[in-house]
Specification:
It contains 8 helices and 7 strands, in the order βαββαβαβαβαααβα. By secondary structure, it is α/β, with parallel strands linked by helices. Helix 1 packs across helix 7 and helix 3 packs parallel to helix 4. The longest helix has 26 residues. It binds NADP nicotinamide-adenine-dinucleotide phosphate.
Length: 242
């Protein structure tokens, strides 16, 4: 039996991933987001606003005595406000950092606290982005937090080696460009706030976007391959290289 704690299961990639995993009756999913959109005998939802660090810290990781593998998939994310520094809303700025970086750090801390001495295989996957390794003017909140998530992944990987945590893996994964509410938001941004907007409109028009469902299938294939050696992988490149 495998247990997956996944943030952001009410939309886009997180929802498609939960649905794909639930096709296998050995998999149990605990979804974490403000809204609940899924109903399945193996699905439990925790309604949490992940910009609230107190609520995030209270997310309980259960004992799951029969689990062979326990996963934490930090998927919930936001672009935050698209625009240039000097013109940004402070509260939106802080919330984007909390959702994209503070919440994953809290959940990783509490996941390891709960499971570090357990025999079950322990896997943390942090959904990152190509924007974690390239600057996109107008996406400061997004690029900085995703770069931070990559570094957090590397630090936790090294800490686990120092602490000799058995059967543990952690990896940051850039999933590709996925058609979701996030992409709709990008395409509807005025050019004054995001100079590259036309490129994203063109990608949609030329059919270059992945659907959440095909991305979820790719991700589950990756999970089944247990190829967690590299701290950061680009899912499309990884699959193309096979
Ligand atoms: N779409 C892309 O092209 C793309 C590309 C690269 C990487 N990614 C990454 O893939 C992940 C999923 O993206 P997506 O496109 O599927 O996004 P999405 O459709 O916008 O979904 C975002 C999810 O995050 C949850 N969320 C947002 N604010 C939250 C909050 N305050 N508390 C708890 N949950 C919250 C939402 O749930 P509620 O609103 O119900 O809370 C929703 O389930 C993100 O980490 C994103 O950075 C996406």
């Amino acid at each position: 039996m495998n247990v997956f704690y996944i943030t952001g299961t009410s939309s886009g990639l997180g929802m498609a991933l939960a649905e794909e995993l639930l096709k296998n009756e050995d998999n149990h999913v605990v979804g974490i987001s403000r809204n609940c959109e899924l109903s399945h005998p193996n699905y439990v939802h925790k309604q949490v606003d992940l910009t609230d660090e107190v609520s995030t810290g209270k997310v309980r990781f259960g004992d799951h005595f029969k689990a062979d593998k326990v996963f934490l998939i930090n998927n919930a994310g936001t672009l935050g406000e698209i625009g240039y520094h000097g013109e940004l809303d402070v509260s939106e700025l802080a919330d984007a950092y909390k959702l994209n970086l503070v919440a994953p750090a809290i959940l990783i801390n509490n996941f390891l606290n709960a499971y570090k001495d357990k025999e079950a295989e322990k896997i943390i996957l942090n959904i990152s982005s190509g924007a974690s390794v390239a600057p996109y003017p107008g996406w400061g909140m997004y690029c900085a937090t995703k770069a931070g998530l990559n570094m957090l992944t590397e630090v936790v990987k090294e800490e686990a080696e120092i602490n000799d945590i058995k059967a543990f893996s952690i990896q940051a994964i850039a999933p590709g460009i996925v058609e979701s509410p996030m992409q709709e938001k990008i395409r509807s941004t005025p050019k004054e706030k995001f100079d590259m907007v036309e490129r994203f409109i063109e990608m949609k028009e030329t059919g270059l976007l992945q659907t959440p469902e095909e991305t979820a299938k790719m991700l589950v294939g990756h999970i089944n391959s247990s190829n967690y050696n590299d701290p950061f992988v680009d899912l499309r490149e990884l699959i193309a290289s096979k």
